[in-house]
Batch of 4 targets.
Target 1
Amino acid sequence: MRRLRRWIRATRFAARQNQGVATDAPRFNFYPMRPEPNASIAYVVGRLGARVGFDPSAAGLTIAWDTGTWFSAAAARSLPDSALNARCLDISKATVDRIWSEVSGYSIAVDPLTTEGPIVVKPDENGTRGGRVAEGPILRRVPGMVYQRLVDTRVGDRVLQIRPVILRGRIILVYERWRPYPQWFKGPELTVPRTTANFFSDDEAALLLLFADAIGLDYGELDVVRDGEAGLIYVVDANRTPVRPKGLPDESVEAAFRPQAEAFAALISR
């Protein structure tokens, strides 16, 4: 029923978007799933006056769209070579950390059976709630969970997470996301759009883009944390179907989505 409700919301969004839009307007095709109206890309197509379609073989820009962790090989074969995220087949937490380790030279993963002190325990699957902090070492591993060291990102009485928005080898903007300490994984949020230079050096930005290319993420968002003591950054999550961030004030919507719309406009005009 949840999947059906999502399909209905997405289909209604596409119908509303296409109503009154010129038939020769730029076209965004999504496959195999359809974006819901809270998807970030929905705000982009609205600003561009673009049409929404679901045929990957049609003219226009195609985006591989699946909210799951793994993108099926069969669906990938139906996509044109130019489709965004056509290579992004696995965004599980374990794969994210493995690829981050390969490009950066260091990992956030720990052995929970031997690591002492606080560790993060969370589902390997993308978009699944259940993250928590446990005191290591623990007695046994749980299938389907990953284990990472807890990176202390506190600034005063708040917890900071950084989320760069990626499009075809560029960081378009960065979301500064805050939660009250000690709510590491849930709770009220405040999200503020910022520039790349507010958070990353040129070398760090290049490293993030290298990771995005390695995992096949042409469009999407990364969850990044910085170790306040060592200064190192870690990519802990990759999202190829981002939604409007929680805690984004209405007065910040334009600052968040105008740069994204401009970047997509430049992409489809090539």
Target 2
Amino acid sequence: MKKENFINFKLIFLFVIAILGITCCSNKEKEARNAYVLPSPWPMFLQNPFHTGRSLYPGPSNPQIKWKYPIAGLIEASPTIGTDGTIYVGSHNGCLYALTKQGKLKWKFCTHNLIRASVAIAKDGTIYLASVDGNFFALTPQGKVKWKFKTNGRNCSSPTIGTDGTIYFGSHDKYLYALTPQGKLRWKIKLGTISASSPAIAKDGTIYIGSYDGYFYVVNSTGKIKWKYKIGPVRASPVIGENGSVYIGTRNGKFYAFSKKGKLKWIFKTLNDIRASSVLGYDGTIYIGSWDNYFYAIAPDGELKWKYNVKGPVEASACVDKKGVIYVPVIAKYLYAFSSKGKVLWKLRGGMIHSSPIIGEKNIIYWGREHTILAIGEGK
């Protein structure tokens, strides 16, 4: 073979290999993305298994209440959205409400005690519900019981669904549970009393959750502890960043950042209890509220970007819309809308707010305010 022909053949060969490599990588990336395709705009607490609290849709720039539905009992759970657009929210009266997009009641399902956790929606529309009565339910989209699973404690931890359909939740009986979509126990592991902390699931299947025994636990997909770290009592849920960093706040007012291997990266201190879970902006900024009456924007390196005195404690988590606007509920005050620079864009009067807002299609925010569910859309 002539030298120039050999060079040409080599170049063609390398070009083909490069194309195949790009195709392979693209397919792998596509598979990874498809594995995390969600069944609705907001199917679980904090929107996705990573708990980033980010929406694919923008919120309203000129808020107007489109409808409101009265519910007996305090609303602590954040709403979720079903595969057909149904809005689900539980109440301290023990009932789960299913509302249409127009704010009409479709049905309600009542347990024997409070509902403090958000429900999670599977790809087939199944609704997973944790109740303080010690039961964990799987309901059809019509509100009928498919199965129920009994724990030995109160269930206030919002369930999270993994990519293989496994359902994870914690209980006051000190166990983290992993259930199959058919309601069978896959495994359970004793960690300590799990209050309201909802498990976050990483891309590799690792589960992160906080406990009232003061530890932050990291468990692999087979139910074995990978590592744990003493941080103080935890009510909040962890959030996982794009680079695998994990963030969580504690009842002692400290906010922690860890690498995915368990190395402490930094600690950010507030002046009071952190009960709300943090959320992530699309640029990696971490947003967190505290009972010290401040809302904070923290850079990925742990430096403060800005803070704002919201003049009330923040107990419920914020959420972030497609444009980077952050919506922050403040007890006895307002639902704030902040720009990513910390400017107040608007605020809506609230009440005894314990529920996190969510964002659905058509710029609609769904939010629980005292004993009412609100749909807040774009005003004229």
Target 3
Amino acid sequence: MPTEVVHPLAVVFTLPGNVTHVGQLHDLPNQMLAAGLAEGMVAATHPHGPIRTRSVARKYVQAVRRMARELHAGGFRGGMADLTPATIVQYWLTCDYHRERCIRVVLRSYQAVGGDVHPGIREHLAGRRASPTAPTVMGSGGASPGHAPRRSRPPTGHTKRRWTRLSVAATR
């Protein structure tokens, strides 16, 4: 049995080794967004995507649930087609590396199966991560032979004034 979306809204993951996991989404405040994210998780499940184990499925469900709750708390009431680049990038800037990665995979997978994703978001999906905590490694010039490259430090957060200017510019 393949991974599927069921009613009340949940994703029933069927994983390698006949392992199943149910990710409940029916209690989320924005069911329209949750349904699109559920479709993205279905499309991101093995053999088409990285969701191959119960623990990974749990992490994806947790990331999607958190995104739906936080966007709703911020006033977003639409579905996947209503997400704008400004909304998603602003959200990604609040995420850690792993949560941003999960959301990117879900959005790419949703798009791959014909889901309506804003063209600007598609461009961001093809680009670099926005998360300020993304693990980065300096180029080989910073490492001595036989030693691992040094990790760089993530950039510091924006000041409130800078964040306001960025938000205004992103919503024009």
Target 4
Amino acid sequence: MSQDAVVKVKDRIRKKGVRWQINDGENIYTIKKEEGKLKVYIGGVHPDIEIEQPNLLGDDEDGEKMKMVTKFYEGEYVNNFVYNYMDEHKDQTPDEQLESLFANVPELMKTLEENGITLNERLIRMYVRRTFISTQNAPNIDLENDLQLARAVEEIKKQI
């Protein structure tokens, strides 16, 4: 990964705990904020069967999509959406809350669009799930968006 690419990603990471993974085709880089400083780690396990991941941002030659992603993060739209819903529906079980959050994603998409953010709904659903799961003591197993894991499960089922 070029130094310029690292600088661009570092510029976009603003809050503690935000973590990005970038695959440049040869290496997987994890960038996260620790002790007030951004650190870049190389690593990751390369799978036996490579699954092509969809580009949920689409083409971004002019950098507009990354500007929207930055605006999306800085506006904390998903955090507000998830936390407000959970506060208003404490009587629901976590499974009911997550199901209802997903049912209300079109409302969140409308809010984003009103604020000049047009991102892929699948990407937004992924962040809704991650934000919700972060409030629970549960692993974030997301077969809807983890195509590598879904394929691994499929391969294991073939062997059974």
